[in-house]
Write a structure and sequence with these properties.
alpha/beta, six-stranded mixed β-sheet, five-stranded mixed beta barrel, globular
Length: 293
């Protein structure tokens, strides 16, 4: 029979088949293959103890998408969460997440959480920039459950992963969506205003049929080094139509003159701050590539 891996702790996998949850381990032959089961995988299992709901994983079904760190399969939507303060908006991280989602072929959605703390209306400018690019942007106030109903509709029929720095309110959002405490809420350190990561294992929570939320540790620090620096421009959506105006084939949009992207910035078509973050990400990737050699 086939099921979905909804949790993994060490070598133990919890596989959901309909309304039944099986505790499983991989078949020995599977351990010697390159593809190891991860949360989000659809797998074939054989039941070995029906009374105690134990089974073995025989095969991993072909994946649609795969994230190496944290290990997740078949995610269809990434919800990039930022907060107005405590911690303050990290747009460099957001742009890394958006580029990586584009690279993987996973739909990204932006959530602006803690809108009640946005005294300087920073979110309005952020929303304007990313809506213009073509991203869906939602405002939420997780603790007071504002914007949660709209969010539930966006989650429908997806395996969703929440991404963002610790402390931005991912766990609080998940608890609000389920209307009960599903995950442990993060504790913000008053000393440095940075979040303390409280999630310890990757797990899928079922909202309703065919709709899940992944609660994942360390997702804010995921590695985007799979993206080649020379291909980064392909994953900044607003660059696509103006790159054809670059004078040189293979233009990096960093040092070159007569660059279509730089011209678009001058014309107000591309946000200059997002371009500067592109340059930072490009240089980070380039440094990483040079270290490999």
């Amino acid at each position: 029979m086939q099921g979905l891996i909804i949790e993994n702790i060490s070598n133990l996998y919890k596989v959901q088949v309909g309304n039944i949850l099986y505790k499983t381990t991989p078949r020995g032959k599977l351990k010697n293959t390159e593809i190891q089961p991860v949360v989000g995988d659809n797998v074939e299992i054989t039941v070995i103890d029906n009374e105690n709901k134990k089974a073995v994983i025989e095969k991993v079904i072909n994946r649609k998408t795969y994230i190496k760190r944290p290990k997740l399969a078949n995610i269809t939507q990434i919800l990039c969460v930022i907060s107005s303060k405590n911690p303050k908006p990290d747009l460099l991280l957001l742009d890394k997440q958006l580029a990586f989602a584009e690279f993987l072929g996973i739909k990204p959605v932006i959530i602006l959480n803690k809108i009640d703390l946005d005294e300087k209306n920073v979110f309005k400018e952020i929303e304007k920039i990313y809506t213009k690019i073509g991203y869906q942007v939602f405002e939420t106030e997780a603790k007071n459950k504002k914007g949660i109903e709209k969010l539930r509709k966006v989650l429908k029929n997806n395996i969703n992963a929440f991404s963002g720095n610790s402390g931005v309110g991912k766990s609080t959002l998940i608890n609000a969506i389920f209307n009960k405490e599903i995950t442990q809420e993060g504790e913000i350190s008053n000393k440095n205003k940075k979040g303390k990561n409280t999630t310890t294992s990757i797990k899928l929570y079922e909202i309703d049929d065919n709709t899940y939320i992944a609660d994942t540790p360390g997702f804010s620090t995921f590695d985007i080094s799979e993206i080649n620096s020379n291909n980064l421009d392909k994953y900044f959506k607003e660059f696509t139509d103006v790159m054809k105006n670059c004078e040189f084939v293979g233009c990096t949009h960093i040092k070159e003159e007569n660059c279509g992207i730089k011209k678009a910035i001058e014309e107000g078509k591309i946000d200059v701050n997002r371009y500067e973050r592109f340059c930072k990400i490009y240089n980070e990737l380039k440094i990483g590539e040079n270290r490999k050699w």
